[in-house]
Amino acid sequence: MDIKLGMKKAITVVIGGGLAGLAAAGTLSRHGQKVVLIESKGKIGGRATSFVDSASGDLIDNCQHVSMKCCTNLQYFCEEIGIGHYIKDEPSMFWRTPDGKTSLFKGVQLPAPLHFAKSFLGAHFLNWNEKIRLSLGMGLLRLTKEEEDAPFLEWLANHFQSQRCIERFWAPVLISALNTPMEKVGLHYARKVFVDVFWKNSKAYQLGLPVVPLSRLYGEEVISWLKKTGVEIRFGNAVKTVGLKSDSSWEVLLDNSEVINADNIVVAVPFQRVADLLGPIAHLDPAIGMLQGLRTAPITSVHLWFDRPITDLPHVVLLDSIGQWLFSRGKNEQGEYYYQVVISSSAELLKSGHDAVLKTVMAELPGFFADVAKAQLIRGRVVSEKQATFESSYGVDEFRPLQTTQIKGLYLAGDYTQTGWPATMEGAVRSGYLAAERILENEGKRVRCLQPDMR
Ligand SMILES: Cc1cc2nc3c(=O)[nH]c(=O)nc-3n(C[C@H](O)[C@H](O)[C@H](O)COP(=O)(O)OP(=O)(O)OC[C@H]3O[C@@H](n4cnc5c(N)ncnc54)[C@H](O)[C@@H]3O)c2cc1C
Fold first, then answer.
1. If both were cysteines, with which of 91, 265, 273, 369 could 310 make a disulfide (CB 3.0 to 4.6 Å apart)?
2. pTM
3. What is residue 455's predicted lDDT score, i.e. its pLDDT?
């Protein structure tokens, strides 16, 4: 197919149907652009995806995805499409130790951060010395400047934080939020997590958990919405290369040899694929070469099906454990009770192999949930996304490009671009909105697509 350049509407080809590409495509189309979205797989959603578990026939997520109330762009994206009701707010967090004791973290009606004072002071897993140290540490972190960065472990050691404060509080939060080992976490993103989640707004910490599989959440309704806004979607064809023509327009070559002409392209593929896709053009912007500096970390999810419930809680932060979080995923049609244990930054653990991971998780769980001892594990399955996200390590922003490039008509979108956020669904949507803003701006339309942060 060769789409001819229209006289009025600029044509933008968005390459990649993950959240970044979807946000960019829908927004541009809504603002009058002709948009063609090309996704190599047969479905949208990118890394936020599900697959059919052959044993049960259930559609299960590659990994539980969690958002928070402070993810204002993801929320806007879902509400605009009409899929917001598939994400349930969870105003409580449960922190559990291997002796089965639980502390509830729930905000009360006080301004942040006082909304958490009662829960924090009552937390069974911290002693008074640790509570004083942590309060001090949180206060001092709040006082750092947003642009400051430093190895965070060093910062913690220099700001009264003991090893147990790190193990019982800082690490569980940051490893899950950043998918980065503690020794690599930088002050900048650690500050962002704590300030955005605990300090800015008393509702910001509330979790958003999808009540349908991710492929359903980012599925038919999103496709219908895109089509309604005028986006032409092409599934199952990868873009092989893109070419810059002498008149500064673009030629997008698909793997079935079709060519699509465009005024702008938004490359919304994972950062590891960007340079290959652009070929020799990549050298025209040093920021694309800098992507080599980004490092990735795996996330492992352990899927467990029991013959009976092991807990009534919807989700539990697991302390002193290899698993960081357990999610209850309900009862399936076969009457099995399905749970997921999520292990972020799992590189070290994976060296022992999936069987060993399953065994370790199963050995740890009875301490946390006494009912595991009575329950029969029907099936266990370990899924690792080896390059789940980039690591939000110290200094990482040096390697994250803007959505605009030095090459006319070429834009980047993806969680890895400069969004101010770590690798998250919120970051991906932000990047799509930012790319759309820049394209529209270039065409003389000043439109604010990015949604305001929670205050
Ligand atoms: C295991 C795991 C757990 C996670 N947990 C969370 C969580 O709890 N909360 C959270 O906020 N985030 C989480 N994330 C991160 C989140 O999923 C990502 O940040 C986000 O989905 C990235 O979106 P993206 O659009 O930037 O990239 P992607 O989702 O990677 O999308 C890129 C798209 O480009 C397509 N593509 C690639 N090459 C081509 C080509 N040549 N032609 C056409 N299409 C192409 C791909 O098929 C893909 O659909 C998790 C990620 C993983 C892997």
1. 369
2. 0.97
3. 84
